[in-house]
Amino acid sequence: MLLGAIADDLTGATDLALMLSREGMRTIQTIGVPKTDLDLSDVDAVVVALKSRTNPAAEAVAMSLEALSFLQTAGAKQFLFKYCSTFDSSPAGNIGPVTEALMQALHTDLTIVCPAFPANGRTIYKGHLFVGDQLLSDSPMRNHPLTPMTDSSLVRLMAGQSQLKVGLVTRETVGQGATAVAEAFDAARSKGEEALVVDALTDADLRVIGEAAGGLTLITGGSGIALGLPANFRRTGLLHPAGDQVAFAAPSGRSMILAGSCSEATRGQIRTAIDAGVPTLKLDPIVIAEGRFPVEDALSWALNQSARAPLIYSSAEPDEVKAAQSALGRERAGSLIEHFLAEIALGLRAAGVNRLIVAGGETSGAVVGALAPDALFIGPEIDPGVPWTLTLGQTEPMALALKSGNFGAPDFFLKAWDILP
Question: Which residues, at least 6 apart from 114, have a Cβ–Cβ distance to it below 8 Å?
Answer without folding.
Answer: 124, 197, 198, 200, 206, 209, 219, 220, 221, 222, 224, 225
